[in-house]
Design goal:
The complex is a heterodimer.
Chain A (H helix, E strand, L loop, with lengths): L1 H10 L12 E5 L4 H13 L4 E2 L10 E5 H10 L5 E6 L1 H6 L1 H4 L4 E5 L4 H11 L5 E6 L7 H11 L2 E6 L6 H11 L2 E3 L12 H10 L4 E3 L2 H6 L3 E4 L2 H18 L12 E4 L1 H6 L7 H11 L3
Parallel strand pairs in A: 1-2, 1-3, 3-4, 4-5, 6-7, 6-8, 8-9, 9-10
Antiparallel strand pairs in A: 10-11
Chain B lengths: L7 H5 L37 E5 L1 H7 L4 H4 L6 E5 L5 E5 L10 E5 L2 E2 L20 E8 L3 H4 L6 E7 L7 E9 L4 E10 L3 E12 L11 E12 L5 E16 L10 E17 L5 E15 L8 E17 L3 E15 L1 H4 L3 E17 L2 E11 L5 E14 L2 E12 L3 H5 L19 E14 L4 E20 L5 E23 L2 E16 L9 H9 L8 E11 L2 E10 L14 E12 L8 E8 L23 E9 L1
Parallel strand pairs in B: 4-7
Antiparallel strand pairs in B: 1-6, 2-3, 4-5, 6-7, 8-9, 8-29, 9-10, 10-11, 11-12, 12-13, 13-14, 14-15, 15-16, 16-17, 17-18, 18-19, 19-20, 20-21, 21-22, 22-23, 23-24, 24-25, 25-26, 26-27, 27-28, 28-29
The chains are: A alpha/beta, B mainly beta.
Chain lengths: ~290, ~650
């Protein structure tokens, strides 16, 4: 029977080295579409390894936490190693004090800043300065962003939004000095309610928006580079395979696979040269992943 | 995901308080489609016509306070003044001050009103500060803009709440009794935003004693947007104005000095739904009214009119792989209650169906194909097709060839007039008019050279008009109208802009025009034919052979200055008594902004002088009593403040 299972395991890609270990508990931070998408792909790739049942299922050897709340749940379970997937890097770093003594590795949801900047360079070659508005909560991202921008030859124009009613004033100030606007995944600034005003204001000034989600591109942003929950799930599974082989969780890592989406109608309307998505992807692939 | 937009703790970044504990969801937010197909403006190089865009910056730099004055910035346009407060604009010639062959749209609704056609510029319920941009299509655009777009389309888009935040106050004072004040207030929320504007403008008219041409208008308008769901937007626009315009001419018993009191209003509702796949659907209703009362003794009783237009529109925009298509329809009802002009209430119902496709045939070739089918309410149905081909010569350079056909429907007055004034020539229209027809061919070029900061555009065109409607005197000297003549306009237009550096730009425009007319129909009474022939001979003078301008925008320290020189060779509108002399006119503006733009307490003060050197060129004189009507220098000081 075991031999049969072993042969079956050989047929599953990436899991040739596995036996029945590790036994994984998947802790989702929510039940909306992104988490479901992650779970479906992860469970398909790690077939049989994911235990079902309530908290603290006996025999678990690895916790895979999806999202911040998932990580919170994982921390409540003592002693087990944790793979925290789909967590924003700055949130993860802020949680470091609480992770002391635990073996925790992260798969970030954010794209590395170099890739983000290279994406801007490749899809908008004529852009020299990139504006970004942020709240205090995301201020810690600035240094890495600036370093990556400098490395790609772009000038970053940052501005902090200090109070809600200064949002548009700050935005205007930044748009004045930028060729493009980089949208941060900050729902306190960019949300369904404010996005209309932000898109129309920047469109009026002929400034393209670059974002982190396909939804934003459909709304009217020029382009985005992002990773889907499915792609993250596959990478998480590979990290787990690594853990199974070496007994140690790999280092914190950024997404390796990503999607690119460009809005050709917005590009045309803004008078931007037509850029081929495949060419941009090739450009990003060539630069390698940090 | 239930998330409030802001939390105070979040902002202050309180120690130990992270962002909402599922920050990764910020990467997966659902957004409404904001820049949908119909909201994305077509880039100039893809446009099927010659298009001039007068944006907010141009409006502010010019300092002009009326739309007709802004039309001086469009090559080939003629701006005439019947009196100080009765301007009219025309493109490629006009027969009189009503300029019936141009379509004028305010946020998509035609303000070219029955029963005479023409636009009541002085009484519009909007001020120039309420305008975001004006797009002028030079050439017939019937296939996309419907009836009366024979010579072109002036499309005015008003500002919405996003344009300026907070409250603004404007105060202006100038010579000739010019005074203006306006307040505007905007508010933006998650689901709803609005902009409210109120204003008052007054002008005592020119010093020319022959004309009684003062005017005063109070106006109010509101523009509100409501977004009930991610896909839907409801736009509401309402406006009203109350106006008194002085009219009358010394020496003309049928035109004594008196006043015309009028009320204009519009109410417009549009519902726009973003569709999956990038298109959208728009359904709209607009109601426009214009009521006036002329208490001159020339009428049997007071000349009172209630004029109304109702439009119901549908427009569907869709995006396919290589095509962007728009199609839709319009149902319109025009009604006029003006007994002294018509003897009875008159109603005209019209319908339009249109379709337009922008087809990217190949990376360098774009075809614009469109057609409009319309009824004129008098039993005639017409099809107006249009074809344009745009070819990308090189990066930033486009060549355009186009051909289009359009029609102008007879206005109520031309078809139904039965005037009952006590003095002056009576009008007794015999009816039976058919729509005027225009066929136009053009070749255009658009070039943009970012490295040298130059843009260049030019076009050559030939317009052929047939079935043109003109006065047809009856045996008892009453006036009727018939389709009597044809005309041919040809010429060249060009615009060059050069940006020396940030804050200093040069703009030059030039138009060369040539016109010819010939009799094509038969008058009711052949004896009058020589009279008509005289007008036909004068047709060549209805367009200036040369017209143009040279303007410079400069930034000098804290000041912004603008000077424009306008030149126009002699032109004589068809019903004018004498030709207008050469016009050499210089308009200047000097402005001093202060405070931090966009913040409360900021503002600007500007001095504008029109006709700085007092060139005494003759204006439009359609009556012998108005001979000697010469341009005057006008100036004003305008200030704007933000709160």
């Amino acid at each position: 029977m075991i031999r049969f299972l072993f042969l079956l395991a050989l047929l599953l890609p990436g899991f040739a080295a596995w036996s029945a270990e590790p036994r994984i508990q998947l802790l989702l931070g929510g039940d909306s579409a992104p988490y479901q998408g992650f779970a479906r792909t992860f469970e398909a790739v790690a077939e049989g390894r994911v235990l079902s049942g309530g908290d603290n299922v006996a025999g678990t050897t690895l916790l895979v936490a999806v999202g911040q709340r998932g990580l919170e749940q994982a921390l409540a379970i003592p002693a087990l190693p944790i793979l925290a997937a789909m967590v924003p890097q700055d949130e993860f770093i802020q949680m470091q004090p609480r992770l002391v003594g635990r073996s925790v590795s992260a798969l970030y949801i954010d794209q590395p800043w170099q890739r983000q900047m290279q994406f801007i360079r490749a899809s908008l070659p004529q852009v020299k300065s990139v504006g970004v508005i942020y709240t205090f909560a995301h201020a810690s991202l600035l240094p890495d962003m600036e370093r990556a921008a400098r490395g790609t030859g772009l000038k970053l124009v940052p501005a902090q939004v200090r109070t809600p009613d200064t949002l548009f004033e700050t935005l205007d100030g930044v748009l004045e000095k930028s060729d493009a606007l980089l949208v941060l995944p900050d729902a306190s600034i960019y949300n369904a309610g404010s996005i209309r005003n932000i898109l129309l204001t920047s469109y009026r000034r002929r400034i393209p928006l670059l974002g982190v989600s396909a939804g934003l591109v459909r709304a009217g942003a020029y382009g985005a580079v992002y990773s889907t929950p499915e792609q993250l799930a596959r990478q998480a599974a590979a990290m787990v395979a690594n853990f199974a082989a070496t007994g140690r969780l790999p280092d914190n890592q950024y997404p390796q696979q990503f999607e690119i989406l460009l809005n050709s109608q917005v590009a045309r309307s803004l008078g931007l040269d037509r850029v081929d998505e495949r060419a941009v992807r090739a450009e990003l692939g060539r630069e390698g992943q940090p | 995901m239930n998330r409030t937009i802001w939390s105070g703790i979040l902002l202050l970044g309180g120690a130990g308080t992270a962002a909402a504990a599922d920050a990764e969801l910020d990467y997966f937010q659902e957004f409404p489609v904001v820049l949908s197909a119909s909201r994305l403006s077509q880039p100039l190089e893809d446009a099927p016509n010659a298009l001039t865009v007068i944006d907010r910056k141009m409006i502010e730099d010019s300092g002009y306070r009326t739309v007709p004055e802004l039309m001086r910035l469009v090559p080939g346009f003629y701006v005439g003044y019947a009196d100080a407060t009765a301007p009219f604009v025309a493109y490629h010639g006009t027969t009189d001050q009503l300029s019936r062959r141009m379509q004028v749209l305010l946020d998509g609704k035609s303000i070219y009103m029955p029963p005479y056609g023409g636009v009541h510029w002085a009484e519009l319920p909007i001020s120039v500060d309420d305008i975001e941009r004006i797009e002028v299509i030079r050439g017939p655009a019937a296939a996309s803009h419907g009836a009366n777009s024979l010579q072109g389309v002036i499309s005015i888009t008003t500002r919405d709440a996003l344009a300026e935040r907070g409250a603004h106050l404007q105060v202006l004072g100038g010579n000739g009794g010019q005074a203006e004040t306006g307040v505007a207030f905007s508010h933006s929320g998650e689901r709803m935003d609005y902009r409210l504007s109120a204003g008052y403008r007054r002008d005592n008219g020119y010093d020319f004693p022959v004309l009684n041409d003062g005017s005063r208008t109070a106006l109010l308008n509101l523009r509100a947007n409501y977004r009930p769901t991610l896909e839907d937007t409801v736009e509401l626009r309402v406006g009203a104005s109350d106006s008194r315009r002085d009219i009358g001419i010394v020496g003309r018993p049928s035109e004594p000095f008196r006043s015309l009191y009028s009320n204009s209003s519009y109410q417009q509702v549009d519902w726009i739904r973003a569709l999956a796949g990038g298109g959208d659907l728009k359904i709209g209703y607009a109601n426009m009214t214009y009521d006036y009362w002329d208490n001159g003794p020339a009428a049997i009783d007071n000349d009172v009119a209630h004029i109304r237009r109702q439009d119901l529109t549908l427009q569907h925009t869709l995006e396919l792989a290589q095509n962007r298509m728009v199609w839709g329809g319009l149902w319109r009802e025009n009604s006029t209650d003006n007994l002294v002009a018509f003897g009875q209430r008159r109603v005209l119902r019209q319908a339009q169906l249109f379709g337009h496709d922008e087809w990217r045939m190949a990376p360098d070739w774009l075809a614009n194909i469109g057609a409009m089918l319309e009824t004129d309410g008098l039993g005639h149905t017409r099809l107006s097709p249009r074809l344009a081909l745009n070819y990308t010569l090189a990066r930033g350079q486009t060549l355009r060839a186009g051909y289009s056909v359009g029609y102008r429907n007879p206005v109520m007055f031309e078809e139904f007039a039965r005037t009952q004034y006590l003095t002056g020539r009576p009008y007794n229209a015999t009816g039976g008019l058919i729509p005027e027809r225009m066929a136009s061919a053009e070749l255009g070029y658009l070039g943009s050279f970012p490295s040298s900061r130059v843009t260049l555009e030019g076009r050559v065109y030939v317009d052929k008009l047939t079935n043109m409607i003109f006065l047809d005197p009856l045996l008892n000297y009453d006036f009727s109208f018939s389709n009597l003549y044809g005309a041919r306009y040809e010429g060249f237009e060009g615009v060059l802009t050069y940006q020396l550096n940030q804050g200093n730009t040069l703009r030059m425009q030039y138009a060369r025009q040539n016109a010819r007319c010939e009799i094509l129909g038969t008058m009711t009474f052949a004896a009058f034919t020589p009279l008509l022939q005289e007008y036909m001979d004068g047709c060549a003078r209805t367009v200036p052979a040369h017209s143009g301008s040279l303007g410079y925008n400069a930034t000098l320290g804290h000041y912004r200055a603008n000077a424009t020189y306008f030149v126009q060779s002699p032109v004589q509108v068809l019903d004018a008594q004498e030709p207008q002399s050469w016009m050499h006119r210089v308009d200047v503006r000097v402005a001093r902004p202060f405070g931090q733009q966009g913040k409360a307490g900021s503002g600007e003060v500007a001095l504008v002088v029109q006709n700085l050197f007092g060139d005494r060129y003759t204006e439009y004189t359609n009556m012998p009593e108005k001979m000697g009507f010469v341009a005057e220098r006008r100036f004003w000081l305008n200030s704007r403040w933000a709160f």
